[in-house]
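Most newcomers find our protein records easier to grasp once they have seen one. Nothing more is needed to start thinking about how sequence determines fold. Here is such a record, shown just as it appears in the course material:
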Amino acid sequence: MVYQLLVKVLFGLKIRDTQFGLKLFRRKVLEETLPRLLVKTFAFDIEMLTVANYLGFNRIYEAPVETKMTFKGSTIIKKGFLKQVYLMVWDTLAVFYRLKILHYYDNKNRDNWVTPRFLTLNNFK
């Protein structure tokens, strides 16, 4: 709840839950956003949705998802829940910094983008 408020304040995303659920994107959205992304952990969703929104792809719809989760043997619990929360918030603030201060996601910074090969769609054309 607090994290969603932070995301809403920092990025203006009108999404109730950015971290959970299935996300579907049109190919054009992926082609425009994936090369710009840096986060590969828990804030990946935030960066993807923020960059897509920033580029004008702002028709984002949500659908409810029902799950039954058990945390027995969860890697989050094993690695330390507070540490994971800290890293997620840190990555989220890094996305804000790149978006609002560095303007890293702008087309003029294309030469600075670091795109891992697995985040490209070239293999699927």
